[in-house]
Amino acid sequence: MLIVCELVTCNSNSILWLRYMKKSCCLHIGPRFDVACTHVTTADGQKLPWVSEIRYLGTFIVAGRQVRCSITHAKRSFHRALNGTFGKIGRLASKEVTLELVKRKCMSILLYGLECYTLLKADIRSLDFVVTRFFMKLFKSTNTDTINDCRIYFNFLMPSELVEIRRNRFEGKFIDCCNLLYYFGINKIM
Q1: Given 14, 35, 69, which residue is the final one in a domain?
Q2: Residues 35 and 113 in one domain
Q3: Does residue 130 surpass a pLDDT of 90?
Q4: Cβ neighbours of residue 24 under 8 Å, at least 6 residues apart?
Q5: In this structure, are residues 19 and 10 in contact, taking their beta carbons and an 8 Å threshold?
Q6: I want to staple 186 with a disulfide (CB 3.0 to 4.6 A). Which of 48, 100, 152, 181 is the partner?
Q7: Structural domain total, the chain
Q8: One domain, residues 80 and 172
């Protein structure tokens, strides 16, 4: 299946996302994102609906003044993976084994693609709260000091710290790629 994503610049510095697939739709991003727009018609006469969010490469982009992603689907997938892990190992495994499984299998689901987006502080706090609630369930405690001590003892980084590490790594690779293109003289194409 061929997926083509096209970025079209509209009036007033807004961006219109068009995604051609079986289920095609439009997403409006820009200062006038909430204004009702006319339907976009394809070459074969079908009208594309306007939606408030679109799934693109596993992340959900939401309509708004700026390009933003929705973390609700990531949190839902994280809880699904976490419950699946608990369903398989139950309370039989040690805390170390459980934390290592969650760190290796579930945290990547929660953080997938977030380094590419600018996250609001509320989104980052929400991601941190998901992990805090997991620790509360695992250690059967609601005391945040105890939970933070356990997290530090087991060297378990919070999503806010992991997103920052991943963003720095992503930006470093991006800068290295641009420097390499400049070195070989490919910058004239851009």
Answers
A1: 69
A2: no
A3: yes
A4: 18, 42, 46, 48
A5: no
A6: 181
A7: 2
A8: yes
* 105 phi/psi in degrees, rounded to 5: -105, -40
Backbone angles phi, psi at 6, to 5 degrees: -125, 135
Q: Give the model confidence (pLDDT) of 23-80 as tens digits.
A: 777 777 778 777 777 777 777 777 777 877 878 788 788 877 778 888 888 899 999 9
Residue that is last in its domain, among 69, 102, 124: 69
What count of other Cβ atoms lies within 10 Å of the Cβ of residue 149? 13
Assigned token pair, 131:
């992990």
Q: Do 60 and 54 form a contact (C-beta atoms < 8 A)?
A: yes
Residues 123 and 52 grouped into a single domain:
no
CA angle 5, 65, 125 (to 5 degrees): 100
Is the domain of 104 the same as that of 150? yes
User: Does residue 89 share a domain with residue 122?
Assistant: yes
Is residue 95 within 8 Å of residue 154, measured between CB atoms? yes
Q: What are the Cα distances from residue 44, in Å, to 4, 18, 126?
A: 16, 15, 43
